[in-house]
Amino acid sequence: MEEHGVELFEQLRLQAQGAVVNDDVRRNPPESSESPPSLEEVEAILGYEFRDKRLLEEAFTDSSYSPENCFSFERLEYVGDSVLNFLITREQYFSNPSLSPGSLTRLRAANVDTEKLARVAITHGFHRYLRHNKSDLDKKIEEFAEGMKEYPLHSNGLIKAPKILADIVESTIGAVFTDSNSMDTVWTIFRGLMEPLITLKTIKRHPMTELTEICQKRNLKLEFVDSWEKTKEVQVFIDKQLVGKGSYRKKLIAQNRAAKDALNNLDTLLVQINQPCQPM
Predict the structure, then answer these.
(1) One GO CC term of this entry (predicted)?
(2) pLDDT of 32 strictly over 80
C-alpha cells in the first residue's frame, strides 16, 4: 500500500514538472508599468531555495496574466492539493489516536478548506507576489483581509475568501514537493506556516448546520425568507418569529450570517416558548 502511495506522488511530481520543462510552452509575460515583486522574497518566507526557479514562477502565475501562453499555477495546485491532504491526514491521524474517521475527516476539512488556506496566504503575504490581470481581485483580497480581523481563526462561512488565495498556497506546496521530491520537506516548511491549525478544541460548527439541528431536535419550524435580490438580505423565522437576519454581496454568505444572528438570539426565543437552550 505504501509503495502505491509513493508511486502516485512520484507520478504527480513528474506531471507537474513536465509543465515547466519545455521553455517553448512559456513565452514572455505581458509588459507592465510596474514589475511584480521578486519571487526570491517568497523563498525567504518559505526558508527554501528552489533548484528550479521556474516552478516558483509557475506557482504564482494566474492564467489571466498571460492567457495566450497557457502558463498558470493550476497543475501545481492539483499536486499541492493531494500532497496537503495527505500531510494533514497523517498529522491528524497520529495526533488523535482515538478519534473516529468521521471526526478526523471533519478536522481535516477544516484545515484545508478555502478560507483556512486563504488565511495562510494573507498571513504570510503570498498575495503580494501573485501575477494576475483580474481587475477586481485586489479589492476582494483587501475585503477578506479586513474580515479576518473580526474572525481571527475561521469565520465558518461568514466572510468570502477569494479562492485564488487558497490556490496559490496549494500550488506553492506542489512546487516545493516537485522541486524537493520530499513529503517531509514540504511538511517542515508548511507545518509552521499553517499555524494555528484547527484542533478539536478550536473547531466550530457551521451556523447553518447548528441552527438546523437545534430546530429539528426541538421540533421548531425553521424558515429562511430570501429578499436578497432586492435588499441583499436574508431573514430567519422560527415558529413564525423573526430571530435573525444577515446581508452580504454574496447570497450564501448573507444566509450564513442570518443563521449566525439567529443563533445569537435563540436563547431569548426558547425562553419565551419554555425550551431553554442547552449546549450541544
Answers:
(1) nucleus
(2) no
> Would you call the peptide bond into 196 cis, given omega within 30 degrees of 0 as the criterion?
yes
- SS3 call for 130: coil
C-alpha cell at 233: 438580505
Under the banding of pLDDT at 50, 70 and 90, the label for residue 30 is: very low
The answer to whether position 233 is within a domain reads yes
**Interior CA angle at 185 toward 91 and 90, to 5°?**
15
Kindly state the average pLDDT of the residues 210-217.
93
pLDDT at 58: 96
* The three-state (H, E, C) secondary structure of 94-128, written as one string: HHCCCCCHHHHHHHHHHHHCHHHHHHHHHHCCHHH
pLDDT, position 227: 86
Q: Which of 79, 105, 251, 44 is nearest to 174 (CA)?
A: 79
Q: Do 87 and 152 fall into the same domain?
A: yes
Distance CA 168, CA 175 (A): 10
Nearest to 83 by CA among 115, 117, 51: 117
User: How many domains would you assign to the chain?
Assistant: 2
- With a cut of 60, say whether residue 19 has pLDDT above it: no
Q: What average pLDDT does range 204-227 have in this prediction?
A: 92
Q: Flag whether the pTM goes above 0.85.
A: no
Give the CATH number for residue 142.
Answer: 1.10.1520.10
Between CA 97 and CA 272 the distance in angstroms is 43
152: in domain: yes
> How many other β-carbons are positioned within 10 Å of the β-carbon of residue 118?
27
Long-range interactions of 17-20: CB distance < 8 A, separation 24+? 17/52, 17/55, 17/178, 19/58, 19/75, 19/76, 20/52, 20/54, 20/55, 20/58
Residue 222 CA, chain-centre distance (Å), reads: 29
